[in-house]
Write a structure and sequence with these properties.
Helix content is 47%, strand content 8%. It has 440 residues and is an alpha/beta fold. The protein folds into three domains: 101 residues, Helicase, Ruva Protein, domain 3 (Orthogonal Bundle); 255 residues, no CATH class; 52 residues, no CATH class. The protein has a five-stranded parallel β-sheet with strand order 2-3-4-1-5, sandwiched between helices. A two-stranded antiparallel ribbon has the order 6-7. The longest helix has 20 residues. The radius of gyration is 24 Å and the shape is globular.
Length: 440
């Protein structure tokens, strides 16, 4: 079983926090700012290229006010990735909120790690949750819709007697739930979070549905496209809602790479045949593998770069820290500056360094302590994680090609990028400043 990630509810804090225990918690690398984005979010567009964002909006036919010009005829499938600490998850969430309005899109965010059992997730489950999340969102927003194709799909998936009995025994509310719109019965697709538990085990229901999907995915996609056509017709006649749908999948890093490889590389053509605009946040190794494979023809790949260390970036990263906590009684100004400098433009690494520093001392963090204890520990940890092959690549600077451009075709270099040993910026790539001195 994968270890559970510890998160802290942002509503329990008044930012910027002053209590030392609170400060230690809010600088944890996995601290989730959901619910407090307006207080804690710092706009980094001034220090990071926004080309990727403009390209995404152009692909889905949005104007400068993020209003839908007209529904797209070719539905883009966008693989969005970023290096650890680049702020990818926060950018994805803000994109979903920004585009979700009556003149834009009905944007549906699937937070993979919290909504799916990632250790048990299989490629077939992608199609189930795609349909279920769409139905759930339409019902939550009280958007009237009617789809005979959707009812037929549910009937086929749940038609076997053993499946129906299992659902009635484990989900007693399913027989009592109706869509409430036109009398349609969509109990299965309204299970919501119960679907996570249902597909986490090898139940009769999950096994049957997965087998039916796996046997004929092309036909399933045709039927799903019919469902989408029927739903879009309902949207078209409703003046108060957006006229198209955008899916955004986030938090996929914990899903096994083999699963993503099967879904987004081996079966790429199936995904692209779905008449739906989809943005999928993928692990960096999936991004690189697609970028250097035949699957690239099916996707548009967008990469969120690191923040290149500059004076402007330094000030933005300092603002990120100062929005979370008051640092006067916690850390010496020189040490605070060093924390940001050694982050290399990685927000996650900045918090990691600060977290290690705070845990290691009960008094004020002075520069001498920071250099002797914190930097020494983090440098050793990072250097000792390297294989002899990784060290050779770094020493010979093989991560740069003859044109001094990033060379990420080698899987060994992917691993170095994924581990933040190499930090890729807009058009450049450098060794993490924590260990750069070892390879100068």
């Amino acid at each position: 079983m994968l270890p559970q990630k510890v998160t802290y509810a942002t509503q329990n804090y008044q930012f910027p926090v002053t209590d030392r225990t609170d400060i230690r918690e809010v600088v944890e690398p996995d601290f989730d700012i959901l619910g407090k984005e307006d207080e804690l979010y710092v706009d980094l567009s001034e220090v990071r290229s926004t080309d990727y964002l403009n390209e995404i909006k152009n692909q889905i036919n949005l104007d400068e006010q993020d209003c839908l010009i007209k529904p797209v005829k070719v539905y883009p499938k966008i693989l969005f990735s970023g290096y650890r600490g680049s702020g990818k998850t926060l950018e994805v969430r803000r994109l979903q909120k920004e585009l979700n309005h009556s003149k834009g899109y009905i944007t549906i965010l699937v937070e993979t790690e919290s909504e799916l059992e990632v250790s048990k997730f299989k490629p077939e489950d992608f199609f189930v949750f795609l349909v279920a999340k769409l139905v759930k969102r339409l019902l939550e927003d009280q958007i009237p819709f009617h789809s005979l194709a959707l009812l037929d799909l549910q009937k086929e998936w749940l038609g076997e007697k053993e499946v129906a009995e299992e659902l009635n025994n484990t989900n007693k509310d399913i027989a009592e739930v109706s869509a409430g719109i036109g009398g349609d019965f969509l109990g299965f697709f309204k299970l919501g979070t119960s679907l996570k538990g249902l597909f986490a085990s090898e139940s009769k229901t999950s096994t049957t549905i997965r087998q039916k999907i796996d046997r004929n995915k092309p036909e399933l996609i045709q039927r799903f496209n019919l469902i989408l056509m029927e739903i879009r017709e309902s949207l078209r006649t409703n003046p108060k809602v957006a006229k198209d749908i955008l899916f955004i999948f986030d938090g996929s890093e914990k899903i096994r790479f083999e699963t993503y490889e099967n879904l987004f590389i081996n079966e790429a053509q199936l995904i692209t045949n779905i008449n739906l605009s989809i943005i999928v946040s993928v692990p960096i190794q999936t991004f690189f593998k697609v970028s250097h494979s035949n699957s690239l023809q099916f996707y548009d790949c967008k990469l969120l770069p690191m923040l290149k260390p500059t004076t402007e970036t330094f000030l933005k990263m300092r603002e990120i820290l100062e929005r979370r906590a008051i640092w006067t009684d916690v850390i010496n100004p020189d040490a605070l500056e060093a924390v940001i400098r050694y982050s290399g433009g990685s927000i996650r690494q900045m918090f990691k360094i600060m977290s290690v520093a705070i845990i290691g001392t009960r008094g004020k963090i002075m520069m001498e302590y920071f250099e002797e204890k914190v930097l020494y520990k983090l440098k050793n940890q990072m250097y000792e994680s390297l294989t002899s092959e990784h060290k050779r690549i770094l020493k010979n600077k093989e991560f740069i090609d003859e044109n001094k451009k990033p060379n990420v075709a080698d899987p060994n270099i992917w691993q170095l990028v994924d581990a933040n040993i190499l930090l890729k910026y807009n058009g450049t790539i450098d060794i993490n400043p924590l260990i750069a001195e070892y390879f100068e």
